[in-house]
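step 4 of 6: structure.
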Amino acid sequence: MKLKIALIGNQNAGKTTLFNQLTGSRQHVGNFPGVTVEKKSGIIKKQYTHVFNTHARVGQPVTGEEVHNENLLQIPRNLEVELVDLPGIYSLSPYTPEERVTRDFLIREKPDAIINILDATNIERNLYLSLQVMEMHIPMVIALNMMDEVRKAGNAIDIDRLSKDLHLDIVPIVANKTEGVSELVQRTISEAISKHKPQKIDFCTGPVHKAIHSVAHLIENIAEKHSFPLRFASTKLVEGDEIIAEALHLGENDKTIIQNIVDDMEKALDTDREAALADMRYEFIAGVSQKSVHRKGDTIEQMRSVKIDRVLTHPIFAIPIFVGIMSLIFWVTFGIIGASLSEWFEAFIEWITSIVDSGLTAFGLAAVPHSLIIDGAFAGIGSVLSFMPTILVLFFFLSLLEDSGYMARVAFVMDGLLRKLGLSGKSIVPMLIGFGCTVPAVMATRTLSSRRDKLLTIFITPFMSCSAKLPVYALFTQVFFPKYAALVMIGLYVGGMVVAIISALLLRNTFFRGKPVPFVMELPAYRMPTMKTMGLHIWEKARDFIQRAFTVIFMATLVIWFFQTFDIRLNVVENSADSILAQLGSFMVPIFKPLGLDDWRLSTALVTGLTAKEAVVSTLAVLFGSEAGLATALSSVLSVPSAMAFLVFILLYMPCFATLAVTKREIGTRGAIAAASFQTLTAWIVALGIYRLFLLFF
Amino acid sequence: MRLSRLEPGKQAVIKSVAGEGALRRHLLDMGLTPNTEVFVRKVAPMGDPIELCLRGYELTLRLSEAELISVEPKESFVFCSGSCSSCSSSHAHGYAADSGRGRGGQGRGRGFFGRGGKGRGRGRGFSLFAKRGTEE
């Protein structure tokens, strides 16, 4: 038998922690259709469902006396329970994609049960969502998370009382210590199997009550026809939810009646429909929690957060501290740990390559397949994989910042600056990561709430010069600007930021008009992330990266290898100047001629740079002969202005295929193509400008 | 009075929430409903956004959103009690007491850089070493 259970809760309620505890690494990540909201699902580990099965077989009432109809339960022997992790939301309004996705999921997919996870230290606001989810008429259990913090503070929650008032099963848990998690699963399964739906509780009073019930009577048949939960539909109609009204295909007549009902209610309460319902829910929650929540004061974590924030969000020190923390992270990542790790890893890959190489030679494999394996597959994947350690180290630090709750503060501190660019404080995170690697930066845009912000951020993040471009800068400054190397480097980094700012301002006033999204965000208490969650984060990233290396990047390197090895008549070329790649490169020459780049080898290098930006250097080395002669060769085909144009083009043009692939995953094919075209066009225009400018002086 | 004009360290009761559509709904959903007590914890370095404490949790919003919320300031500077549990405990008390004292010469400065802030009065609850008064 298969059961499907949905996991719902506020952001920061511990949803992901619980999900990871229950499913381990056996999970499947996918996007919801239509919107780029991620949906994760996984099978709950046997250790949790197994206990239930054995107990049930010997006829023990596992879940205590509160379980309803436990004598009638038919527990299947081979139970498989799928857990679906829904986006973290605060309400079921019709406005945000996350909330709509959750509603649609509950209405259309009809999971067998819901686990609603609440942050027990902040129970009032967390219950607000529960009251709406209950109306869905789906078996439901409340997981009261972070009970250890509540207890430590000397506070108490009367679970029985709360459970009675809400008519719901409530299980206290501590998700990061797996406390109470088994019991939670068992109770949820028995609720699912017994199909025990939440009772209707009348948390509404007076005029609201009257309005909801009148609407419920009116639409009873319609709701049933469209298989909508009646209570949910009526509440939402009273609230003024257009989407529900449309989904039910209400006639004009019904709409008028509902409008009249709502008008009466608004008049009686002297407020509008949305405020009336929000107020009613919070009123009910206040009543319930007064009876069952005994609160002496703040939790230790909350008090600690206030103290930490006195320093970290201090009006003067906040920005310097933030800059300091980020510099430290980049220095450690690229300067200390990441660099040596990457070196070892690179040596390791080279070692394997050489073994395979000599093995193939001993075997006497023909030259072409040999070259395919060594120069194509190994060289391509190896060059990309060698970046993995650095990226993982960077991600370790960034998820430390994120899980501890500091990122939310950074958004708070930086919002004022970023708003001037039409972005919100939350965009700072991807832009920072962009200096390391654009791939994880684009992935980090997932935390942005509006599509407009996400698009704008993805468009400009690649202008933050990624670490892979450094080898190119190093080579060119050494050849053309030996005296001013540092100045040119800094100029490029700052130039990238300036272009990003100008682009943001331009795009904001043209393609991405529309209001900046409101910045209404919870600041969670600081919490020490557990090693287990951190480990899982890193593992997920590593898996993602390896997957990409062996799919997109693998294909790309094979294509380049193919073009580089054969000529148009598919003969193996002696000199790469005769290859298809060279021919393609010469087609591109007219495009780059205005920038002073009229050698096919330069344009070819720009094309191979699309697999990874470091490939520009290796391609130039191959095409111009040895690396030793590269400097003289380069200065023979490039002048100072054209060298500068080349560097600027490298800085700004479309990022590597790996970035393109994640961009496509985040904003779709059209978005990815638009972003790449925008970046390349910007690169061309700016490079032309720089070329012309430098021509005046040199 | 608008919530955006409420100084850090001060407390107020929400009277009404203006605006429309998604934004208004989100404000209401986050618990900014009439008759809720809010406490302005602090202002970001650029003078915007602000950090609020309500219903026992911390929420940040921009001045433009706080503009939509009209409030009735509570005149008690020493004790802020009620639904915002953080306010009722000692640290908030420290801010509030400071706030009372520093009021005179403080001006309407918001934050360090923005909004024409004139100097940093200690009354705005920014002090790194804000005194932790004891309750009662």
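step 5 of 6: annotate
 - Chain A touches chain B through 50 residues (CB under 8 Å).
 - Chain A has 29 helices and ten strands.
step 6 of 6: archive
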